Automatic annotation (TrEMBL):
The keyword S-adenosyl-L-methionine does not apply. It comes from the Bacteria. It comes from Janthinobacterium psychrotolerans. This is DNA-binding transcriptional regulator, LysR family. Residues 8-65 form the HTH lysR-type domain. The keyword Zinc does not apply. InterPro entries: LysR-type_TF (IPR050389), LysR_HTH_N (IPR000847), LysR_subst-bd (IPR005119), WH-like_DNA-bd_sf (IPR036388), WH_DNA-bd_sf (IPR036390).
Length: 312
């Protein structure tokens, strides 16, 4: 690389390619709408750079030297690859094209939401592949968004990372739930839970999604100088509703999440005696894919699934 001139002119490579193809300085001058002396000067410069005559007189005009012929394909490849750098992005034709989309999300989303997202993606782009990734303390989702391991992250934060693009999807009011035959549930109405009751009851909570991140529930309580009695921590959030049916545990979560399990499990829900802000779910993505047509389409499908959820 050190032997290359400091400023290599792409136009000079185009002249090299045309000279080797046309084998005539005058024709190249006409093609490029330049004076013949200018093309002749470029040929001299090319000969100086390559250390080879490139074109020599033959029986019927100019012919490339052996070294000149060897430069034809590399010159064309450089011109083709350079042109591809500046091709305008074409729209993503979802029904016809195939892409692989990597989406990370926690398992405490509304039980209908991710299935609806997958259904929209399958209907909209049947040739594409969808890979769903979990979120946990061992996953650096911010780095993976930057490096390309993930295309989209769906989750809830008090304060989403400021340097990422963000789109709000939906809100989920916070309630708590327990087994309907829980001793506390049998004697207490759904609207009669006191703050002391709430803090002292045995709670089950999800494991931290990220190192040092306590989740929206405990982060809010900490800001109020309060602490609940978490006695079970589970990395398997989808199993927690079933734990409630066999224990005295209390779960604090979003209303949309628990309503799915209320249909089949003997659960009783309570209004939390604190003004928790609703759980706010977002989709996050990196500048790397911000302008890509297929990723704009992907985010539109996720937003559509969120809007459908809000109507239910």
């Amino acid at each position: 690389m050190s032997s290359l001139p400091q400023h290599l002119d792409l136009h000079l490579i185009r002249i090299l390619y045309l000279l080797l193809v046309e084998k005539n300085v005058s024709r190249v001058a006409l093609k490029l709408n330049q004076p013949q002396p200018s093309i002749s000067a470029s040929l001299r410069k090319l000969r100086e750079l390559t250390g080879d005559p490139l074109l020599v007189r033959g029986a019927r005009g100019m012919v490339p030297t052996q070294h000149g012929e060897s430069l034809l394909n590399p010159a064309k490849r450089i011109l083709d690859q350079t042109e591809s750098l500046f091709v305008r992005k074409t729209p993503f034709v979802a029904q016809e094209e195939a892409r692989t989309f990597h989406i990370a999300a926690p398992d405490y989303l509304d039980s209908q939401f991710l299935p609806n997202v997958v259904a929209l993606l399958r209907r909209g782009s049947p040739r594409s592949r969808v890979v769903l990734h979990s979120l946990g303390p061992g996953i650096d989702h911010i780095r993976q968004l930057s490096d390309g391991g993930l295309d989209l992250v769906i989750a809830n934060w008090d304060e989403p990372p400021a340097h990422l693009h963000i789109s709000k999807l939906f809100e989920d009011p916070i309630i708590c739930a327990m087994h309907a035959e829980n001793a506390y549930a049998r004697r207490t109405a759904s609207d009669a839970m006191t703050l002391d009751d709430y803090l002292s009851l045995p709670h089950v909570a999800p494991s931290p999604m990220m190192p040092g991140y306590h989740g929206v529930i405990d982060s809010f309580l900490e800001r109020q100088n309060l602490q609940r009695n978490v006695v079970v921590e589970s990395a398997y959030f989808g199993l927690i509703p079933y734990m409630l049916t066999q224990t005295d545990l209390v779960l604090t979560t979003g209303r949309q999440f628990i309503r799915f399990y209320e249909k089949t499990l003997p659960l009783k829900t309570y209004t939390v005696p604190l003004k928790f802000p609703p759980m706010r779910f977002y989709q996050l993505w990196h500048q790397r894919v911000h302008q890509a047509p297929e990723h704009k389409w992907l985010r539109d499908q996720v937003s559509a699934a969120a809007k459908a959820l809000a109507k239910n």
